[in-house]
Amino acid sequence: MAVEFRLQSDSEATVYKLVTIASQAYAIGDLVQFSRSAATVTPATSSTITANVCGVAVSAQISTDTQLLVALATDRQTWSVDATNPPNTAHNYQRMALTDKGTVNNTGTDQTGTSGIFEQWGIDPNNSTTRIVGRLLVGHATT
């Protein structure tokens, strides 16, 4: 099974946007971040911060492609995502950093800095062994 973000619900109409990419391949479900220096998006990483969260890839692209279709992320959406560690309800409402573009690092410690971009709300009832549900904390903090 692919490691990916999956949209579970959105209280408003989900907005999709074509964004510019360069020299990167993308799979459906990859979280992407804004590259402020290159006017593109790049795959999210463990150092992605709330201000740079763009959205989730809804098209697969190869490294020679120049555009990617993304579902723009908001804090009103509910997402399902793979977790680095076994899901635990004691982690509910903790903020978490990423492990990579498709995995949240659920360490059991609330991430209070700007890298805490995912807030766990529960365990995915469709896959309780590896996936959690929650929201992306899309924000404006720059440091």
In short:
With 143 residues, this protein is mostly beta strands. It is built from no helices and eleven strands. 0% of the residues lie in helices and 41% in strands.
Description:
With 143 residues, the chain is mostly beta strands. The protein folds into two domains: 13-72; 77-136, no CATH class. Helix content is 0%, strand content 41%. It is built from no helices and eleven strands. The chain has a five-stranded mixed β-barrel. The relative contact order is 0.24. The mean pLDDT is 94.
Largest sheet: 5 strands, mixed, barrel
Multimeric state of these chains?
A: single chain
Number of domains: 2
Number of strands: 11
> Percent range for helical residues?
under 10%
Distance between the termini: 34 Å
What are the salient characteristics of this protein?
2 domains, mainly beta, 143 residues, single chain, five-stranded mixed β-barrel
Q: Which helices and strands, and how do they pair?
A:
Layout: E1 6-10, E2 16-20, E3 31-35, E4 40-43, E5 53-57, E6 67-72, E7 77-83, E8 95-100, E9 103-105, E10 118-123, E11 131-136
Parallel strand pairs: 7-9
Antiparallel strand pairs: 1-7, 2-6, 3-4, 3-5, 5-6, 7-11, 8-9, 8-10, 10-11
